[in-house]
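This section describes the prediction task in plain terms. A model, or a person checking by hand, is given the sequence of a single protein chain and must write out its three-dimensional structure as a string of tokens. No templates, partner chains or ligands are provided. The sample shown here is typical of the held-out split.
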Amino acid sequence: MADKEAEASASASAPAPAPASASASGGGEGKAKAEAEPSAEASSLPTKPSVTFEAAKREKEELEPSAIQETAKREKEELEPSAIQETAKREKEELESTHTPSDDEGDDHKELAEAETDDEWLEARFKDTRIAVIGNVDSGKSTLVGVLTRGGLDDGRGHARSKVFNFSHEAANGRTSSIAQEIMGFTSSGEQIMADRPGAVTAASRNATWQQVVNSAERLVTFIDLCGHEKYLKTTIFGLVGHCPDYTMIIVNANAGFQRMSREHLGIALALNIPFFFVVTKIDIAPANVFEENLSQLFKIVKSNAVKRLPLVVKEPGDVEVASAGLAENKMCPMFCVSNVTGEGLPLLKAFLQKLPSRLQESGLFRPPSAPVEFHIDSIYNVTGVGLVVGGLLRAGRVRCGQQLLLGPDKASQFRPVMVKTMHFKRVVVDEAESGQHCSMALRSLVKKETLKKNMFRKGMVIVGPELQPKATWEFKAEVVILHHATTIRENYQAMVHCGIIRQCASVKHMSCDLLRSGDKAIVTFRWCFHAEFLSMGATLLFREGRTKGLGRIVEICEVETYANTFAPPPRNSQIELPKKRKEPKEPVPEKEPITEHVPRELPKELPKVTELPKELPKELPKV
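The expected answer:
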């Protein structure tokens, strides 16, 4: 009780604190004067540490040298690069976790990823070069391909070419009638990979050989062996237009020289703007004067106004680099003189083929993998245990196993949904294929209870992505130039048109001029004669009537309002059911009266008399 009274008296004797308004209104001068001249009342009070003094003491302790050094050290550690990077990384993660990207930012990231994929695709595609082998019949095309890919020499009696042919009748008569493909593989040092090739050529042995070469090679060269006989010119044009080779290798017989069909093949290569080079074969049996004469003939052709190339005969290893660079720019025409029996000139040719780059980007025929899928079918197979398999060239996009695509247009101008089961690239099983690759696919129909059959397919069919919304076209306009034609071309003129894998007869519906002769140019409207086709703007076309007559480029696809421009209705057994049509009652067919023949009930009693013959013949017969 006494303690409480003492505390109360002490608190009563203590001075009351000044109001906050008074201290604030006094300003800095009053505060300084009060601190300089303390009042007698304040000096008489017992000294007690004030709040201001404690704060000043703390600040003084913080400003001591040791504290300053520690603060500077801590700030320095925070400003180190590693700390800055960690802080920036942490802030970036927090921002990404809380930030939702807009549509524009998402599109930018998508385009950047697609661009990186396209660059990788170009770099990978440069490792595969496609070369079409053309020339006159009996010039040694298949023999040269067999010698280059097999490694051994020919015996002069067709041993090498027998390993390249697809059919037995080709080996029997020695003429190529179909498109055959063979590959060469090179290591990173430029050496050719020689695979183990069994004696008998079967599908299984070819598959094993190709797999060994593809898995071991750093660089590939694919040969497309085409026909040389005039009878199979359509197959040769189909290989040049549909398979899109990077280069053409024109084979010339050293004895026969540059013949008519070789000129035809050269004209097609020039029309399609495909770089070409010459290989003169059979130099071991050609007389010296004949060989020199035929070689000078090639020089004249290459230097002519129609060709305008710089000829170069490769004789030394130093010429290989110059020849490959000049051919890639389509300014030079290298020439090689080889013998498939003695092996002369073959090492230079192999070194040249190994250095040829791909012309994927320069040709303008392919689009990157980021584009919608566009697969052109050039062959159809029915494999036992697998089903229907189609082979062709992937012109755009990327295809994966299990992907759903559209197949068409078929004979009824329809597109049907299909799914890719498995894929092969150069006879090797793969999970995906990219633009520029020639591959094969096993397909399955997505229509309920429908099985794909070989008779459902025809020339000119494609497999495309649903985002393309494909349409079958009956009419199109093309800018054409007439190469050579004996007569005048007018409206209603019909010719065989080659456009990619399409090979169909078309008629001229309209022209920008009244008539066309050799060397003339015009805008021509074509109409297909039998089926609607899937076309692309800017595609190159050739039309012929026997021999090649003209060259053109598609400039417009005409929209004709027909059933061919829409997706086909689903088949009768599909999952989608169409409304059934109401059957109208048929009118009763009146009964026909039975047809009865009027047969007499009784035979006549008297039969007609037969003319009596003479009883005796004349003794003397008339003289002849």
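For orientation: Residues 103-125 form the longest helix (23 residues).
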